[in-house]
Structures are given as structure tokens and as C-alpha cells.
Amino acid sequence: MAVTDAYERMEGTRSAPLFLTCEHASERLPSGYAFCDSDRRLAGTHWAYDLGARELVLELAAALGASAVLARFSRLLIDANRDEQHPELFRQHAEGLPIQLNQQLSVSERQHRITHYHRPYHQAVDAALSEVAAPTLLSIHTFTPIYEGQVRQVELGVLFDQDEAAAASLLAALRPTYPQVAANEPWSGKQGLIYSAERHAHQHGRVALELEVRQDLATSPAYRQQLVSVLAAYFQRQ
């Protein structure tokens, strides 16, 4: 596995049926950054990263011999699943309170984070994807069971924009084991919320999908083991 300040890259086989990315794999703040007292409330929470996502990516990649690229910086530093002009590239508030890490950022600081973290991550995805034949790019994310006071009943979400047929096929494969799986939940890919998957997959002529897993389930090794088994069996048939 190749590791840099911006990403870790797991080398798979060229013939693997799937290519994996994980934009919110880590809550790590690189050297030179730290949570101040008021921001420490966000450490270890879904605001900082997607709990269980990295483990799921590594386990699924191992099961399929798939290549994977995972971000090594917190989404609070800069969000790898947003484009460079997105208003939430540097999130300003969480749970009604300001995120001090991102208050009054200078133009030079914004550019520094883009140049040293955001762009290298996406360059690594492009480079890795160009070396494999996988027809599908699957971006792995997880979501909190309770968001802004609302309990989420959905267990898994398959997010998509243009690739509706591929999403419908994956949903049909998941539903017998996971009846609470849903299309474009808890977010919709048709609202621009699978930026990374769409950007890279379509540039390389691949299918773009994103899998969302509820975090109380994604952090369970037993749950991940079953999910990896179901996903691996499905993609091996494609």
C-alpha cells in the first residue's frame, strides 16, 4: 500500500470487477493542524469522518483483489467529495456552532489545502483507475443513525445519478438480505452528492455508484463481514 499525506492507495489486480474510493476514510489532521478546544467535540464523530468506511473498503478490496484509494485527511480540513468551488468545501458550522478550524480562512490557506490534499487525492484516483479494467467505481461512505434530531431507519443506500440501471441491479441484489436498502438515501446522487464517484468514473468510461452504510452497522465487524460477502458475490457475477 502506498501512503502519502493526502491518500493511501491499495494495489489490486487489473482484472478485478470493482474499483473503490473512500473520500471520508480518516479523521486525521495533518501536521500543522489541530482541533482547538471548541472543535474537539467533533473528533470521533461523523462530522470528522465516516466511521467504519475505511474498514469496509479494505475488507471489500481484499475480498475482490480490487484497487482502492482512500483520503488521509478529515473532511473538516477539506471535503474530498465536493468540487473546488462548492460552498461546503470547507464546512463552517456543525450542530449550529462554528467550526473554528475553518473560520476566516485566507485565500492562501484555502489554496494550500486544495493543492496539498484535495487535488493529490483526486489525481491518485485518476492514476489508479487508469491502470485497471474494473467497469464500476464504487465510493464507500457511512452515515450517522441520527442526523439533526431525525432518526434514520434506512440501513443501506445506493446512490446514483446517471447510472440508474446499474444502481437498480445492485439494489435488487442487496434487498433479499437487507430489506431496508433504499435508492438515493439518505442523500441523493441526483443532487450532486456523489461528486467524486461521478467525476472519476465517467471520465474513464466507468459506472459511478456510491454505497452508504449506517454507522452503527458499519462499525460492526460481523455486519461488515456479511455485507462484504454479499457485495463480493454480486460484483464477481458482473
Please give the count of helices: 6
Helix-strand sequence: EEEHEEEHEEEEHEHEHH
Supply the CATH architecture. Answer: 3-Layer(aba) Sandwich
Radius of gyration: 17 Å
Outline the biggest β-sheet: 8 strands, mixed
- Counting DSSP E segments of at least 2 residues, the number of strands comes to 12
Summarize, please.
Helix content is 32%, strand content 20%. It is built from 6 helices and 12 strands.
Fold topology:
Blueprint: E1 2-3, E2 7-10, E3 18-22, H1 53-64, E4 67-71, E5 93-94, E6 97-98, H2 107-129, E7 136-143, E8 146-147, E9 150-151, E10 156-159, H3 164-174, E11 181-183, H4 195-203, E12 207-214, H5 215-218, H6 221-237
Parallel strand pairs: 3-4, 3-7, 7-12, 10-11
Antiparallel strand pairs: 1-2, 2-4, 5-6, 8-9, 10-12
Provide keyphrases for this structure:
238 residues; alpha/beta; Aminopeptidase; 8-stranded mixed β-sheet; two-stranded antiparallel sheet; 32% helix
Task: Describe the fold and architecture.
- This protein has 238 residues and is an alpha/beta fold.
- The chain has a single domain (2-237), classed as Zn-dependent exopeptidases (Aminopeptidase, 3-Layer(aba) Sandwich), CATH 3.40.630.40.
- It contains six helices and twelve strands.
- It has helices at residues 53-64, 107-129, 164-174, 195-203, 215-218, 221-237; strands at residues 2-3, 7-10, 18-22, 67-71, 93-94, 97-98, 136-143, 146-147, 150-151, 156-159, 181-183, 207-214.
- It has an eight-stranded mixed β-sheet with strand order 1-2-4-3-7-12-10-11, sandwiched between helices. A two-stranded antiparallel ribbon has the order 5-6.
- A hairpin with a 3-residue loop joins strand 1 and strand 2 (7-10).
- Helix 1 (53-64) packs across helix 6.
